[in-house]
């Protein structure tokens, strides 16, 4: 497994998604994933904290360029709670929960985010604007109501399946309604 290639592929996927989705400053980008799946193992079976840390550090630096908030989804053992900065939690009034993600309950990405964020907190749920899912960790439950799949030029990170999504406003009305470009 080449860590440098994995981190480079993560960067490529994120930059491509941002270029396609064109999120507004202040939007929330969600990351879900499994370092086990990246290594070609069953989700949760080979958590790699070092790999998780390298990926999180890269993502934090990329999203800062675009003034996007990062939310990192934990695994099922913490009910897919999300690690975010306290500033994001306060700004969007998300309900905080009490859990500290670690290798066996939360996963490498959530544990790394909790370590790397300046004031990490965990929240139970949210409605994010866009994100990537590395290894089918099921981020859809934390996206806004109308999620739109985005096809990227790469479909895998390491050995893990890569899914990307953006969201759009609901289209309401009927045959007479008119809509802004989405």
From TrEMBL:
Pfam families: DUF436. Belongs to the UPF0340 family. This is UPF0340 protein C7957_101172. It comes from Halanaerobium saccharolyticum. The lineage of its organism: Bacteria, Bacillati, Bacillota, Clostridia, Halanaerobiales.
């Amino acid at each position: 497994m080449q860590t440098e290639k994995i981190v480079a592929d993560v960067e490529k996927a994120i930059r491509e998604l941002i270029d396609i989705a064109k999120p507004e400053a202040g939007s929330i980008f969600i990351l879900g994933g499994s370092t086990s799946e990246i290594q070609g193992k069953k989700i949760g079976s080979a958590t790699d904290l070092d790999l998780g840390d390298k990926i999180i550090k890269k993502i934090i630096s990329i999203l800062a360029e675009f003034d996007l908030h990062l939310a990192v989804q934990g695994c099922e053992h913490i009910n897919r709670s999300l690690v975010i900065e306290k500033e994001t939690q306060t700004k969007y009034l998300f309900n905080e929960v009490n859990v500290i993600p670690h290798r066996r309950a939360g996963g490498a990405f959530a544990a790394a985010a909790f370590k790397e964020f300046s004031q990490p907190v965990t929240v139970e749920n949210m409605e994010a604007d866009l994100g990537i899912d590395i290894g089918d960790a099921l981020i859809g439950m934390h996206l806004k109501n109308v999620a739109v799949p985005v096809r990227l030029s790469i479909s895998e990170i390491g050995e893990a399946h890569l899914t990307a999504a953006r969201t759009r406003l609901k289209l309401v009305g009927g045959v007479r309604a008119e809509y802004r470009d989405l």
